[in-house]
Design goal:
By secondary structure, the chain is an alpha/beta fold. It folds into two domains: 149 residues, Thiolase/Chalcone synthase (Peroxisomal Thiolase, Chain A, domain 1); 143 residues, Peroxisomal Thiolase, Chain A, domain 1 (3-Layer(aba) Sandwich), CATH 3.40.47.10. The protein is 33% helix and 20% strand. The chain contains nine helices and ten strands. The protein has a four-stranded mixed sheet with strand order 2-1-3-4, with helices on both faces. Helix 3 crosses helix 4. The radius of gyration is 18 Å and the shape is globular. It starts with a helix and ends with a strand. The chain binds coenzyme A. The site of coenzyme A (COA) has 19 residues, from helix 2, helix 6 and strand 9. Coenzyme A binds next to helix 2, helix 6 and strand 9. Homodimer.
Length: 304
Amino acid sequence: MDNNDIAKLVETSDEWIRERTGVERRHIAGKETTVSMAVEAGRRALANAGTAPEEVDLILVSTISSNVLLPCAACEVQKELGAVKATGFDLGGAACSGFVFAYNTAMAFLASGVYRTVLVIGSETLSNITNWKDRGTCILFGDGAGAAVLKASEGQMYRPVTHSDGAKGAALTCESRYTKNWKEIPEENTYMKMDGQAVFKFAVRRVPEVIGEVLEANSVAPGDISCYILHQANRRIVEAVAKRLGEPVEKFPMNLQEYGNTSSASIPILLDELNQSGALKKGQKIVLAGFGAGLSWGASVLEW
Ligand code: COA
């Protein structure tokens, strides 16, 4: 769905959306669901990593837009992939920090020796919780899924840095339809509602800060980082983060022009595209950074 398609739904234009966000298109699920896309992303990640489904100990699916409550998306992935040994559960609600938080959860299990092989998936059909009458939000979001396989190794473990600030949660909300008083909830509250400027200000301040914290916590200099893979929300946010860190914007790859903001799927989709293009080299240090509803934000350093 390109910006001109959006302009048929709400008062906006391709020019306005490109200028303010960098988004040109977004992919909207047709028959696919959060679960079916999670399965496909998981299948491709395992194939890409040369890992058999039977080797997987844990499947984590980060999503705020699953089509199922029970069984969880991760158990559906386990069944469909034949990952018979794996335990699966979903991480809901971490939203656009979701992939980074799921990655950190996986790393904690690997570091403690509880599991040796983890499949981490971010999958979203945000189109189902988007208010297509609200031009402040519907221009931003898209659907998609991505996945990564993490394995225990003897290499260095990097400490993540994460934060939550529930006091500022009102900046980005979506009320559940699954409550006793659902008939009294205004329909627009059951779609994502956002104070765009508040979220923008939060992101451009907190993301460079947390990247600075994670580099310091791990005694890594910015010059040692090959690329910064940020949650793909808005081109202006990514550019502002680069500027505040004093790092060249070329070290901040982007694909939001093609997919919009796919919440917990954005980082693994970008990681996969960079990997497929040969841009990631073994041993390179990479920063992942997520931010979003909660409010929540966090960053991790990893070695490819
Ligand atoms: N098309 C055209 N005009 C629009 C519009 C749209 N899609 N959305 C808002 N406007 C109008 C507003 O009504 C306002 O008009 P007014 O000055 O006559 O009142 C004007 O544009 C400016 O609105 P504002 O909300 O200040 O725009 P903005 O520059 O803050 O851009 C966002 C809006 C949503 C693009 C921007 O705030 C943003 O990207 N925020 C971060 C959101 C985000 O990334 N969230 C997810 C984080 S995980």
